[in-house]
Amino acid sequence: MQVHSLIDSFNYALEGLIHTFKTQRNMKIHFTIAFLVLFGSLFLDISRLELILLFASIAFVIAMELVNTAIEVVIDMISKEYRYQARIAKNIAAAAVLMAAVNAVVTGYLIFLDEIRSLGLNLLLEIKKEPAHLTFINLGLLVIIIIALKAKDGGGTPLQGGMPSGHSAISFSIATIIVFLTRDIVVATLVFLLALMVVQSRLQSKTHNLLEVLTGALIGILLTVIIFGLL
Fold first, then answer.
1. What is the mean pLDDT of the chain?
2. Could you tell me which residues are beta bridge partners of residue 160?
3. Quick check: pTM over 0.90?
4. Cβ distance 71 to 99 under 8 Å?
5. What residue numbers bound the domain in which 187 lies?
6. Number of separate domains in the chain
7. Model pLDDT for residues 6-18, shown as the tens digit of each residue
8. Cis peptide bond prior to 158, omega within 30° of 0
């Protein structure tokens, strides 16, 4: 019972995130910038602390946009006509998003300033080879892509149904990452068998159809091959 409640909680939270992505132009902009920043960081020699700060800044901006959207929805639900107090509340919520965005811009500027100044062909050929960096960036990009595709498709819920299957994408992405890191045929066989079991469970429960799980698996594999293939 508690397990189902926990899954439902995640599902509701992701539904809110996808709804905001579908209905709010600013959220689309935030996700686009986040994708470009994470992808660009593959070409820069940033430290673990700097990577943590990037993820924290991105999460902070998205969280503030979610809060802002929630406040706007509640105000519109309560007050159907123009009120000065409602306008002030919306402006304050928008200001919170602005401050989070300013923080993200300053953080990105301080992290990337020296790297951008020295950007050249040699740097592009010496991409950061830290597996932890590539793994987290890969999964971050994959989550952004899945959320965007789920929002566009509009079918199912974030954790149940819809195109593509997020479970398939993440499981096959992780399996591909492990293959790149270990380069061991036995390990590769085992991890892909585990990924196939995840896919089989989604099909057996009729949460996804064959096309949805195949699309998710293909996205997860291709993105990981592209990123880890840059090494």
1. 80
2. 157
3. no
4. no
5. 129-231
6. 2
7. 777 777 788 888 8
8. no
